[in-house]
Design a protein that fits this description.
Blueprint (H helix, E strand, L loop, with lengths): L1 H16 L4 H12 L4 E4 L6 H10 L5 E5 L7 H4 E6 L4 E6 L6 E5 L6 H13 L1 E4 L2 E4 L5 E6 L12 H4 L4 E4 L5 H14 L15 H13 L1 E2 L1 H15 L6 H6 E3 L3 H17 L4 E2 L1 H12 L4 E2 L1 H5 L4 H11 L4
Parallel strand pairs: 1-8, 1-9, 2-5, 5-8, 10-12
Antiparallel strand pairs: 3-4, 6-7, 11-13
Helix pairs in contact: 1-2, 2-11, 8-11, 9-11, 11-12, 12-14
């Protein structure tokens, strides 16, 4: 299918320009295909901003970066009513949220009111100002970032907002080989010559929507659907799979997690060029889908368990249908 070829070329292009972060590139494309939003956690300087900016440059889409700070106001995101003295009327001036691709940089540095304004935009694809509601573009993706190093002066994201993110991706520093390639790429980008890189045409919004339709229609057997459901059930009723799991998990994933796991598994399979979804596709994306949707107990943390380890335990104990 030509759409698959276009997106595979896009992934190759991004991998050449965002070196050492192939996992982030793939998850960003899955988020785009599954029509969701992405939360990325990583130290500064790991190409998070570059990833979504380079993606926007190769799509028929506009890009906006919003730097979240403690003094940010909801109107700084949504926009506000402007008074026009010439005729004594008010007109709405749209804020930076009215773009196709939005980077919410260091989202946890903004207070609750700002996060609630972003929550409505992410969940409802609209924003409300006064007694009016304004729809957002049909192509709308928020990539939010968090810095795991500095937590002083931050506002933890509420569970309701975390659940709106399709996936939560954690990224780390590149290895030695990738670091050397980054040096060469940085030098090349400072010159007019960038030989050896792939040049591709922009993907239109119509092609993106058609690709999303193809992803939604990809075949998934009943056994794979049952596998997804049983993974979610294991997070809600962990006592079925061991007393230790029951002690480790306080709250499981919501139905939104089931839907996200289905969409991401389909998108993962489609990106590989397959025309069906397998349990391997589910296992490949389950950590990013459930990482921010499970709440583990203090007992689990005291035992050295992390959310990822709990998810791995669920995968070990839930049989593949």
């Amino acid at each position: 299918m030509s759409f698959q070829t276009d997106f595979q070329q896009l992934r190759n292009y991004l991998s050449e320009h965002i070196i050492g972060q192939a996992h982030l590139v793939e998850r960003l494309l899955i988020t785009l295909l599954a029509d969701g939003h992405l939360l990325v956690e990583g130290a500064p300087g790991l190409a998070k901003t570059k990833a979504i900016k380079d993606l926007s440059n190769k799509l028929e889409a506009d890009f906006q970066r919003i730097q979240f700070t403690p003094d940010l106001l909801p109107a700084d995101i949504t926009g506000t009513e402007i008074f026009r003295p010439e005729d004594g009327s008010f007109s709405f001036q749209k804020g930076p949220i009215f773009h196709n691709m939005v980077l919410a940089d260091e989202i946890n540095r903004a207070p609750a009111k700002v996060q609630s304004a972003l929550l409505e935009a992410m969940a409802e694809r609209q924003i409300s100002v006064g007694n009016q509601t304004w729809p957002l573009p049909q192509l709308f993706l928020v990539m939010a970032t968090q810095n795991p190093i500095e937590q002083e002066g931050t506002y933890p994201l509420p569970e309701a907002q975390l659940d709106r993110f399709l996936m939560h991706v954690k990224i780390d520093y590149p290895d030695e080989t990738a670091e050397k390639s980054i040096l060469k790429l940085a030098r090349a980008e400072n010159t007019t010559e960038q030989s050896g890189t792939t040049q591709i045409e922009k993907i239109t919004q119509g092609s993106i929507f058609a690709a999303r339709k193809a992803v939604n229609e990809i075949y998934m057997a009943d056994s794979v659907e049952n596998y997804i459901v049983q993974i979610i059930m294991a997070s809600r009723k962990p006592e079925r799979y061991g007393e230790d799991l029951a002690r480790w998990i306080d709250f499981g994933a919501s139905p939104r997690g089931t839907i996200a796991l289905d969409r991401c598994a389909r998108a993962h399979a489609w990106l590989k060029g397959n025309d069906f979804t397998s349990p391997d596709d589910v296992q490949s994306v389950v950590r990013e889908v459930l990482r921010h949707r499970l709440l583990i107990s203090f007992e689990a943390e005291a035992a050295g368990m992390t959310v990822d380890k709990v998810i791995d335990t669920i995968l070990e104990r839930v049989p593949v249908s």
